[in-house]
Amino acid sequence: MSLLPKLEIADGVWICGDDLPVIAGPCAVENEQLVLEVATEVRAIGERLGLPMIFKASFDKANRSSYDSFRSIGFRPALDILRRAKEATGLPILTDVHEPNQCETVAEVADILQIPAFLCRQTDLITAAAATGRTINLKKGQFMAPDDAPRAVEKARKAGCERIFVTERGYTFGYHNLVVDMRSFEMLHQEGIPVVFDVTHSLQLPGGGKQTGGARQYAEPLARAAVAAGADGVFVEIHPDPEHALSDATTQLPPRRAERLLASLVAIRQTLAGASGGDLAASSS
């Protein structure tokens, strides 16, 4: 709950309002059974906690550390699975786009097009995504300071997209580590930009081997700190068997742990809203 105006980022899902929108799902489309299982669980978690949920999964992991790492089951097959998940659960869909020529086709399935962190300054990709009319989630790059992000957002807005938000996922801190600057949420709010906190990617230990590592034990403290600092929503990757996930095995959360975490985030939001008379931003004035 910030002082920014409410923004509908998907059908019936608003950001910067009273609710805490949650983007959740497995890192990658591994197979249809996994996607439908997790999408069903994501919807159930949202119903139990009273949270608006958006289902996410990547149809292609184009930036894996190693050539030999799992990338995709194929562009069309993965999109078809995401379409079936949407039909089965009614949840809005978020997925990445990596090249400008993918945007129009992906927009036929996805409600939100995500610009990957490593591509967050790619003008052609941002403007192609904006041209679809879909909401854009701009992942703030690990190399990008908060006050650099508005220029990337401006590219989308000048291309005609007003439904855009930024996702904070940490900044490179030396070799193979990330740090989250909790000031980032307020800095971007001052630029009129809603901000979501990426719980699980902020846990990554990038590079340093064939696969990206991670520190899953810090999911709860980082997420709670981010919501207390003013995050307008959260992004969390969920997998029923994280250790055997084909991507991000060290950072994804099992469903029950993710639900407990989200319940605690709801409590934090409610506490802050009560302490500030329903206006969380009033505490900073």
The gist of it:
The protein has 285 residues and is α/β, with parallel strands linked by helices. The chain is 33% helix and 18% strand. Helix 1 (32-49) runs parallel beside helix 8 (255-275).
3D architecture notes:
This protein has 285 residues and is of the alpha/beta class. The protein has one domain (7-284): TIM Barrel (Alpha-Beta Barrel). Helices cover 33% and strands 18% of the residues. The chain is built from 8 helices and 14 strands. The strands form 4 sheets. The chain has an 8-stranded parallel β-barrel, surrounded by 5 helices. A hairpin with a 2-residue loop joins strand 1 (7-10) and strand 2. Helix 7 (219-229) runs parallel beside helix 8. The protein is globular. The relative contact order is 0.15. The model is unreliable at 280-285 (pLDDT under 50).
Which key terms come to mind for this protein?
TIM Barrel; disordered C terminus; alpha/beta; two-stranded antiparallel ribbon; eight-stranded parallel barrel; 14 strands; 285 residues
Strand line-up across the major sheet = 3-4-5-6-7-8-11-14
What's the overall geometry?
Answer: globular
Largest sheet: 8 strands, parallel, barrel
Task: Find the CATH superfamily.
Answer: Aldolase class I
Q: How many angstroms separate the termini?
A: 15 Å
Judged by helices, strands and strand pairing, the structural class is alpha/beta
Low-confidence stretches: 280-285
Helical segment count: 8
- Under CATH, the topology can be stated as TIM Barrel
**Rg, Cα atoms, Å:** 17 Å
- Kindly state the mean pLDDT as a whole number? 93
- What order do the SSEs take from the amino end to the carboxyl end, as H and E? EEEHEHEHEHEHEEEHEEEHEH
What is the percentage of strand-forming residues? 15-25%
Total number of distinct structural domains: 1
CATH architecture: Alpha-Beta Barrel
